[in-house]
Structures are given as C-alpha cells and as structure tokens.
Amino acid sequence: MIHDAAALRDPSWYSRSYARWQRSVLPRIAGGAVAVIVPSAFSRAEVIELLGADPERVHVVPGGIDRRFSPDARRDRAVAALGLAEPYVLTVASRTQRKNLGALEGLAELLRPRGIEVVLAGGGRPQLREQGASAATAVRSLGHVDDELLPGLYAAATAFVLPSHHEGFGLTALEAMASGVPTVVAAAGALPETCGDGAVQASVSDPPGLLHALDAALADPELVGRGLLRAAEFSWDRTAREVDAVVEAALAVRLRGARAR
Questions:
Q1: CATH code at 75-231
Q2: Is the pTM of this model over 0.85?
Q3: What confidence tens digit (pLDDT) does each residue in 143-153 have?
Q4: Boundaries of every domain in the chain
C-alpha cells in the first residue's frame, strides 16, 4: 500500500531526512511489488509517474469511513469538552505546509465580522515540515483531538474546509461529509475525485475566493444530502473486500509463475 508520492512531488513539505528516505525506498518498493495498492486514481498516476511502477500492477482501492461519523454524533459533549461556541468552520489536518493552512488565516479574518470562528484540529508529526503560525493567529488551534470527541466536533461545525495543496485521498473531507456538514475542498490532488459533487471545490490561494466557495456551500440546500450519499459509498468493508481481491489475484500470478519454473 502506497498512499501517495507527495514527498517526491515536493520534498519541501517534509523533513530532509524523510524526503531522502522516501526518495530512496518508495521506487524500490513500487518496482519490486507484485501489486501496489493506492487509494485514488490520482495517486495511481503519481506512483506510476514518480516511482516508475508498472501500471498493470497498480490498483486503486479507496479507504473507508468509520460509521461513528454521522449527523447524530454527540455534538454537545465535544463542544463542551473543547470549550467551543458555535458557529465555527472546521479543518482537521496535520500542521504541515502541504495542507496549506495559511489560507485559513485570511478566511478567519473575513469570517470574524460574522461571528464565525475558524477551528483547526490536528497536531504535527516529526517527518512533516510544519507550516509556521504567528503568535497572533486568527485560527483557533485545538491540537490533537481525542477520537471519542472527533465525530461530535465534525457534526457541530457550521462547515468544513480542507485547503490542501496535495491529498492522496482526502479522508477528513469524507468524514465531514458523512457528518452532514457542508464541505469545501481545494481543487487539488485527489480531493475532486474523492469528494465528487458532495463538496464545493475552491481556489485556495485567495481567501476571498475561499470565502466565496464557503458561501456557495452554505447556500446550497442540496449539498449536505449529496455529501451524505457520496460518503456512504466508502466503507472499510468495501475496502477489505477489494484489498482481498487484489491480494488473491497477485498470489495467483505468483503461483502461476512458480509452477512455470
């Protein structure tokens, strides 16, 4: 399983040691594998282009969504535990340059007169090059949020925004859609493919443009319904079945090769 080749696409998103390691290891893994599983057609094209993988051996198997993410999740508990006051626009993402979290600062400033807060959930990781934040940030950062509170945090949000430069799949956007939250995503990476018509796509480099997309999402009475339908297509049961099928086919190929020898 290779989620993406982001470290080869733009090494500046990662620590130097991690980018070097990925550049050394991933092509060898992709070249030597009987089968490579990726979560999206976008990642498939990237793995073939950047890692030199055999196209016939690269298979798309999307990830799934935990069914705890739903409009019925415990909003009150999450809001109280995290000290939040509605309304708020939510982003769930690690603090890395690849996630383009700087775009949230401009959005937060534009939403402040409306009394809407921008809330970021997610911590950093040692292999990621974090996007710096000023001391006077307009975005409220929660850091890591406990898994028990996360479904309620989603469900209580007025909207969800994911302004990433690159995504191999876009799981958090699907979780927001499954929670019945109007969702805005960047027109980048696998996000359009994963979200389909269940989210509004936005240009993320311009905060007014991001606000325009958010307003469009909030004004669309059918967006939440489309998001729920789209998110319902992704389950871990489906993922497991499709992974099993790829593994069985790969084993059959390997067995035929062994018999031929």
A1: 3.40.50.2000
A2: yes
A3: 999 999 999 99
A4: 6-64+235-260, 75-231
